[in-house]
Specification:
With 1246 residues, the protein is α+β, with helices and mostly antiparallel strands. It contains 25 helices and 57 strands. The protein is flat and about 160 Å long.
Length: 1246
Amino acid sequence: MDCQEEKPIIYTMENKPIVTCAGDQGLFTSLYTSLAQQLPREPMEWRGTYGRAPKMIHLEANFVQFKEELLPKEGNKALLTFPFLHIYWTDCCDTEMYKSSVKEDMLRWQNTLRSHGSADWVIIIVETNDTKRKNKTNILPRSSIVDKIRSDFCNKQNDRCVVLSDPLKESSRSVESWNSLLLKLRTLLLMSFTKNLGRFEDDMRTLREKRTQPGWSFCEYFMVQEELAFVFEMLQQFEDALVQYDELDALFTQYVLNFGAGDTANWLGSFCAPVRNWSGLLLRRPIDMEKRDSIQRGEASLLDLRSYLFSRQCTLLIFLQRPWEVTQRALELLHNCVQELRLLEVSVVDGALDCWVFLSCLEVLHRIEGCCDQAQIAANCSHTVGLWAYATDKLKSLGELCGLVSEKVPTSEDLNRTVDLLAGLGDERPETANSLQSPYKKLKEALSSVEAFERHYLVIFQSIHFLMSARLVGKSLAEFYMRKGDPERAETFLQEALKSYVSEGWSLPLTHTRRQIAECQKLLGRTEDYLQTSALLAGDENLTTEERKHFFQEILSFAGKSGNPSHKVSLSMNVFAQLTRLQFHPATASVHSGGVLQVELMLRSLMPVSVHIQQLAASIHFEVDHGGTLGRSKGAQRHTNLGTIEFNLGNPSAGLPSSAAPRPVLELDEVQDRSPSDNSLNSTGVVCKNTHLLIRRHESNSPPEMPNCVSPPTVAMKEGAQMLKVQDVTLEPGNNSVIFTAPSGQPGSYMLRQLCATVGEVQFIQSHIYPSVGYEVYSQEPQLTVEPLSEPLLAGLPQMVKFTLLTGHYTVKKGDALQLSNSETMPILPSTKLVGESTLSIQSSEKVTSISLPPTPPYHTMEFQLEVLCIIPTGSERPANERLTNGEIRHRPRSYSHPDTPMTAIDQRMSIDCPWSIYSTLLTLTFYIPFKTKHSLLSAGNRKYIQVCVQNVSDVNFTLAEVKLTENQHASLELQSFNTKTHQLLCSKHSVFCLWEVRWKDDLPSCLQCVFSANFSPINQDTSAFKPFHYQFQLERVTTLYSVRAEILPPSGEQHCRCGLVCDLEVCITRLTELSEGEITEDSKTDTDGLKTTKLMYEVADSSSNWAVCGKSSGMVLMPTKANATHKVQIEVMPLFAGHLPFPKIKVLKYLPHTAAVATQPDPDSCVENDSLSLLDKTLDDQADTASIRSRGSVHSVGSGDQQQRGVAMPRLEPFSPGQVFNHSHTQQVLVLPTTEDHIMEVNAT
């Protein structure tokens, strides 16, 4: 077909695959609507050729009447006019009609298709009940007609004959028939697509492989591959269609690049023709048929080909809902076309490319605005800002070319050039003729006059102003006003551009923009602003040394002028020099009033030459110390690192981002309020010292004076009462050291706030030194501290205590002395110590120790040591409390257990009267007793022994000597020692046991008052170092009252006890002494014979499970209180194991009736021999058998807890004191034989 026939098909862009219909046209017409609607409803999976991914597509078709002219001719590669499927429609059910007409028509139709090589056809037979009723006489069964058609035409392709039953009825049979037909049509269409597109792509690739042969034409290949793109677009596969255009774009680009490298192609000659038209892109048509025809004829220029190719890509991208990719591709296209024209050496009129780029940018932007709403455009403005900037740049170039951007009017040559450029635009396109804002009208009006050009140029900048990168193009607008001779308006846009460069961190554009700003300020006569900018440029390392010297000379020229001294120009210090380090001498940054403190500043000069400074000063903010805080403040020390503060600042001309600048840090200081009497802490708090930086609103995200400021603010120097000053300083380029002597007359805090350097009539001022630094001048009260020379302090041994006196503001005069009031349990040993070259005299009395102090100047430290001794308490009764010399009660030291050490601690308090205060200082020293001492009473029948255990709980090894034990109340009592060694080693964490036997003549006293004494000293010291140690204790109820003997008798007829046989346990309890006066008599009774008796409770138990008690295991006996009275009890026991078994444990307890008073709790240091007691379920008076109920305690009541809580008096059990009951069979054993049962064992021997 010719082009006139193709244009309507291509231009509508609503093409569908062509399907021809032959046969009964009336029948097809009746079914067309249903067929056209139902065919695209269900998607089909289409697997394309060349490995394309499967996709689901909806098939549509353009059903047309069959004509032989529609069939493709030889060599025709147009796919849009290619019929993909041919259908023959018939509803014939009459044999005669089929044979006479239908068969011949089908045969003619099939022969026509066969002659044109088309094998994609199908025959549809429609069967309805109406047809059957009309031809009742000659009709055949449907299967007969179908079989005949299949045998005549579909012999080998039975699936090409489809039956449609009752298509106009709504029945299940009709629906099923329709679904089968639609599925068949979709399948045949897909098969035809795959086959024909595959054949077409093979031919297309074959044609592309011939591109190296002579005579190959890119335009012919372009039309072939574009036909494939049309088919994909027809199937709504826009991504595949876009791929075809991208491949054409890449192929053409490669040929252009090869041409630039010297590899030419003959067909490129047509694209090297001079550019005659530069009307820009046309994106308002789906297809620009004029440019397509020129490409088909091989007459298109480079701009025509690129414009048409991009218009097709733009259309497909908008179909794919990717409009922002259009802007990206458009910007690349415009830049690439300019380069391709240069590579191909195409002749272009000056300004023509600028017109084409400007029109194309606006065309793309208008196309995007037409398919997106304003919200989307605002949210994606970053995608369009490049096009706006490019259009602005080209419009500016056109204005300069045509003489429209100048202080002069355009010349005749400029006017002729303007006319030539407008002529190359041609006539306006019909699509934009009625639009008042078309790119064509804007460009034509902008080039018409100077006023119109400025108006349009500014309108474009106003449009860009709302975009994200508006400030980036402000510099171009500033240059426009500079050329127009308006520096004031130019400076405004330069400042906006400067902010963008600073925030983004662009160093070189920042320097260039500052130079332009300096030029504007100089023209406007703004002296201070010009000097500030010149200072920034003088310290900018991006400039050459000569340029930097030039700008610094501008500052020196102004500084050398003689004018009004009170009206000096103030500039920012950060652009002149930077404070990099500050160091205090001494490093503590704290000095007493009148002391000497130096401040060393390290300044890094940013200027390119040496600078002579008349005066360098630092203002000081002074805060008076109001008292209440004793000692030095920790605030200044917390901000110093060995007296040095580093200031990390960047180059102010480098334009660092605001995020890189340091933020203010909380500067906290501790404030304490102490009592003037005893220096105790009353209250404490935290104060923020830089609230003026933190609690205020910032206009930007950085602190003041930070290097990312666009133009550092000029501030005035605040004159303070006190300042650090130094005269005639020369700063060399780089680091310089300046030393100040700080004032230290009045106590308080001195904070460095500002820094000022004076150079003639110019002052460079740093408004705030950050971080805040300062020093302290203090007036300190004298302080006396007492601390052990070594830890811990051991009681009983001389210990060294260190006294440290900080004189503070007080001058120690001759005759001043410290009066120490101490207790007699901690005497201070007399000695004479040297403090430096002076003698320290110590005089001690009974309660007061006087220490004379040598003369000492203020703010000095005096240290001396005293030897003290803490006497270990003996445990005797303490005297009443006394009073110290200051009238306070002297509390006796009391020992207590310390949680961090096993040693017992003793707190010794003393009072110190100082000559500089009317109040006494109370101090406490903690001593630790190195020993733990325990005693125990041991018995062997009537013989008594006393054992004392001394445990060393300290970390020091000791030697014990002269160990003694005495009894103070009974002279007839004799204590015989079994301790043979005179000196014994007592190592750390070890114990020493000492033993004495108690001997008496008449009667053994019931109570003994004993004193254990020994001398001790650390190991390897002479005898003079031994110190006494005493330990007092009391032993009560030491007389043995009862003896218990037990015997186990074997069963009758047995010589020894046997395992499992019951044996007799005979227990004999004997009273050894008469009833003494000290013995409790509440449990005693008098029987009918006049004898006094007492009740005892016995219990037999075996905790080791060697014996089983048969029968009763406990009971009560009435025991006479006369000497040698005996009571025997027999208990049946059975051994459970064979061997030498220990006797069962026998316990004897006191039974106290309910009328007896509650006994006092025994001494906790004493050990209860029978510590596991039993309670009886019944009253003990009934003598009933009981089971053993184990309980721990000293006094046990018989009865329920409820009765005891109600206050009902109940009988109770009380254990005897250690030594009152002696068990002779405590460690005795008895032989138990195994059972005599016989066992038969069979053994086989071979």
